């Protein structure tokens, strides 16, 4: 992962007070790897997934009653 600071974007579900995630779209668009983290733990671990895996996670989230 880059040593440059990432520009994180909160999930659209973040405003509802639920369990939220953030991702770094600019990093993803240049590398094809999507960094994902817990929005409540900005200094915590970062999960790095392929763009295809991230798309699958988004599909699952949209289809489930979260």
From TrEMBL:
Domain of life: Bacteria
InterPro entries named among the record's database cross-references: DUF397
Domain DUF397 stretches: 6-61
Pfam families per record: DUF397 (PF04149)
Name by which UniProt lists this protein: DUF397 domain-containing protein
Organism: Streptomyces clavuligerus
Lineage of the organism: Bacteria, Bacillati, Actinomycetota, Actinomycetes, Kitasatosporales
């Amino acid at each position: 992962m880059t040593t440059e600071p990432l520009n994180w974007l909160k999930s659209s579900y973040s405003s509802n007070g639920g369990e939220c995630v953030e991702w770094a779209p600019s990093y993803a668009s240049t590398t094809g790897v999507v960094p994902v983290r817990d929005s409540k733990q900005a200094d915590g671990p970062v999960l790095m997934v392929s763009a295809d895996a991230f798309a699958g996670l988004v599909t699952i989230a949209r289809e489930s009653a979260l």
